[in-house]
Amino acid sequence: MTLYDWPRASAFGRVIPKSKIYEHAEANTSLKDLFVREVNQIIWAHKLSPETVNLTATKQVTEIQVIRLTTRTAVLDTTVLRAIDKAIPFPLIFEIVQAGRVQLIAAYKRPSEADGSRWVIGDYFHGEWLPEDAPRIPLPLALNMGALYEGLLEPLVAGQTARLIPGMGEAAQTPFTHQEAARLTSLEERIALAEAIKAQTREVERIKARAGRERQFNKRVAINAELRAARQELERLTGVNARTAMTNE
Predict the structure, then answer these.
(1) pTM
(2) Helix extents (H) in 93-216
(3) What is the pLDDT of residues 215-232, one digit of tens each?
(4) Which of 41, 77, 121, 186 has its CA 20 to 30 A from that of 85?
């Protein structure tokens, strides 16, 4: 994962008061306390728009906003991110800054098909932590704002999914099989597959934990059969030999 060299023309640099997020996200006391504990400052760092990146808008993506959060904690509750996403009616890319490190985080955000004034926000995908002074690369090549948004999200989706599966390591250029990659043409489909891999990986770990706690032989046999089935489904989703990649029982 890399950091992006956001265009100079897109620089916005406006501090967003937490009170504005509270107002637009209809924050309760619990959410406000979470912001106080975890967030130091919220900066509207960049506005990627047709005027600043010279790309035409699409129906779903007219602008992309880059929000820079300096945090007090190493782990940021995604409830904070979701509140900011709810408050700002554009697709967002977050740069999380903590103790000299930077991490990119984003969720796939799109207008609701039922009500275009509302936004649908998916699961959050996390990039790796990098030094704050790490080299930055130009934005992905794109023909329009929608394609740029996909180009920014895809490395996060692929990288997080690869990290979920022990043994894939640096060799995992994509979590998808060649057959799946050829079939999946939309960002929605690729994200749906990534979320399925995430859920199935958690299911494998849950069953492994049950097997480790079970002492009765006959029950262990049944749980191990369930584990084999879960691993086979993970193999189908990822296209790798997940059974040998996972830690042995």
Answers:
(1) 0.76
(2) 145-164, 178-183, 187-213
(3) 888 888 899 899 999 988
(4) 186
Is the separation of the CB atoms in 2 and 135 below 8 Å? yes
User: Coil, strand or helix: which one is 167?
Assistant: coil
Burial of 231 (0-12, 13-18, 19+ CB in 10 A): buried
Q: At what angle do helices 78-87 and 18-25 cross, to 10 degrees?
A: 80
Rounded to whole angstroms, the Cα distance separating 100 from 73 reads: 12
Q: Which of 15, 10, 89, 16 has its CA nearest to residue 55?
A: 10
The pLDDT assigned to 214 comes to 87
Select from 197, 177, 188, 179 the least CA-distant residue to 153.
Answer: 188
Q: Is the pLDDT of residue 169 over 50?
A: no
- pLDDT the model gives residue 165: 58
Q: Are 103 and 127 in contact (CB under 8 A)?
A: yes
123 close to 129: Cβ distance less than 8 angstroms: no
Q: Which residue has the higher pLDDT, 51 or 214?
A: 51
Task: Kindly state the average pLDDT of the residues 145-161.
Answer: 88
CB 1 within 8 A of CB 131: no
Helix (H, G, I), strand (E, B) or coil at 208: helix
Paired strand residues for 174: none
Strand ranges, E, within the chain: 3-4, 11-15, 39-48, 64-71, 92-98, 101-111, 119-126, 130-131, 136-137
CB 230 within 8 A of CB 200: yes
* Residue 33: its H or E element: helix 29-38
